[in-house]
Amino acid sequence: GESVGLHLPTLSVQEGDNSIINCAYSNSASDYFIWYKQESGKGPQFIIDIRSNMDKRQGQRVTVLLNKTVKHLSLQIAATQPGDSAVYFCASHEGARQLTFGSGTQLTVLP
Amino acid sequence: NAGVTQTPKFRVLKTGQSMTLLCAQDMNHEYMYWYRQDPGMGLRLIHYSVGEGTTAKGEVPDGYNVSRLKKQNFLLGLESAAPSQTSVYFCASRTGNTDTQYFGPGTRLTVL
Predict the structure, then answer these.
(1) Residues A55-107 pLDDT 10s
(2) Min CA distance, B87 vs chain A (Å)?
(3) Is the CB of residue A107 less than 8 Å from the CB of residue A81?
């Protein structure tokens, strides 16, 4: 079946540095990808998404890169702030199928 | 708009007891979902609904039932709770025009 996995369960960065969170997916037919942020005790919050007809998409301080050749997705956070500390999930789906979620990366921002 | 709300926030059950979790959304979304989240694992889909009066099974439906009698509400029922159902439950919804799901704050359920 389809699987989505994150490369590292934890990531620590210095405040002000850029963060890169990686995700790999197994289904080459996946056509939609999304990143969520989950703070402790809260529900997942939408960050940014991208479709398979794009390689890059930018939001406010965030960029998602999609490499379909190696089935890899990354989330870049510019000038990481203490409020960015959270668990980050990627998810993907193919067509009308339901989203498949990765297990998450805990991002810790160090002062 | 309140977005997606869940009731209750916390609950402790004994094995064999039943309960219903309520999800409500005020965004007029067609699609609604129930997920469970366990430590070290991604969100897993329990059941979902593509519109009022419809429900479908997700990845882990056993031991749960759902109902979507009103468009704004999606109920998740546990008829006979088991310790394996200890988890955090999240509801989500979306329109039929986008793939972006919006999540509620979660219900933490413990089954003793």
Answers:
(1) 999 999 999 999 999 999 999 999 999 999 999 999 998 877 789 998 899 99
(2) 13
(3) no
